[in-house]
Amino acid sequence: MSCDAFTDALSDWIDGTLPEERAREMREHAEGCERCRRLERDVRAMIGTLGELPRDDETRPRTWAAIEDRIRREGGTASPWTRWLSFAAVLVLALVGGWIASRPVRHEAPVAGAPSLPPALASADATLLEARAALDAVLAARQTKLSPETVRELEASLAEMESATKKIHEALAKDPGNRDLQKMLVASHRRQLSVMRDVTLLAATQETPR
Amino acid sequence: MNRSILRLALFVLACLPAVAQVQIDKHRAVPAGEVVVRISNAFGSISVTAWDKNDVWVKGTVAAGAEGLDMDSGPSDDWDDEDDERPKKKVQRTAVDISVSVPDAWTFESDDDTDYRSTLDVYVPRSSLLEIESTNAPITTQGTTGAINVETVNGAVKVAGGGRTVELKSLTGDVVYVGAASEVAAETVSGTVRLDVQTAKVQVQTVKGNVTVRGKTLSEVSVETTAGNVTIEGDIAPEGRWGIETFSGNVSMFYTLGASGHFRFKTAEGQITSNIGPKPRRPERFQPFRVLEFRTGSTEAEVEVETFSGAINFKVPVASSPGPL
To answer: What residues in A contact B248, CB-CB < 8 Å?
Structure first.
């Protein structure tokens, strides 16, 4: 297996969705390639903030399980479109997105002092902030591998996404039960994490020899 | 006299990096049929052209301080990822790996990578499957008919051709695709995306890069962006599905024939403009989103556009008469 093939399949491996034979190839490659092993360690470290995700195991991260339990108690269901998303943090978002989609909606007049967000969404929000901090730490260690111009572009784009998220939060503060806004918040978080993941993988790939 | 010598010396010094670059000219014969060609060049440029020979040819220059150009070939066990519906299976093909090795010290402490640049012009059999990666190199490919996968950090990506799946990813560079691939996925953070396709399934993600998708008949279009403007020019297939989601990016859709299907446009703070259908409305009194929803024509096509503050503009050339939902 080449380092490229390893990098391409890494997310699926960590998600535990690879066929056994391919998972074995991944394990063997990681054992023999120090740089890919480091990449795997970094990616797993990012996920670590959401709970320990064992190798090749479908066991869900503790935090995800906790959120899922909470969602179940609140009567929601998981969305099936999570397969393509790679990280547990994103899975959390998708799950919350499914829960949002499944809830009945009734729009009422905004009330001063109303609760800011539904508990499951607020919990996912907090969890994602932790994940974001972990991703930032990985990025900080890698930034010398990206040109200053790239880092500036990246920071500007992340700021753009953060600004979008903030505005959705502000709108949600006025209308906490709005399903469309909740879905937008989930999508915004998902995009942020997706970009962070891609940047980390790309930065790491620069170190990976063929 | 002294001034002339000085000028000559300066000229020679200026030419040194170019002179020091190493010319390359390598061939590798390959069997007929699908061949995987993997190319890696961190700095400079990569250009791939299809030709009708069972031969892979690399020419160009390698940067003076680079460790060299490696060109290896051999059997490669790849996983056939073309079809998500099928169980994945191993496929054995011949693979040619072309890579420029550079010292670990070549990183990105400044924006100037002039001395690191290697230029690769690669000619490959037409049916080749391409896997290309780079950091600071524009990448162009033309004429190949197999799957194409390109990843770069800053370089622009320009692809023409590709027969099946095409995946193009650049962090800050622009992505341009022209061809008849059945599935095209493009992803950038700040680069623009321009896709000119036939009847493809299209998936695009950007953060602030603008997106333009042009096609005769577009079956599936999925665009997600935070702040990029989205323009779709073309018609939806009879059972097509389009989903476009932006935060502040404006969305414009221009049909070339007539509109048919179920259309649903939704925005919180943007404007909705359409030359067919009823006026946008708020479904409920305190709902912040305004919605324009209508059905026209006889097809089962579905178009859904959602923005927070981006404007939505929908135009069809001939006014259809929208029916009740």
So the answer is: 164
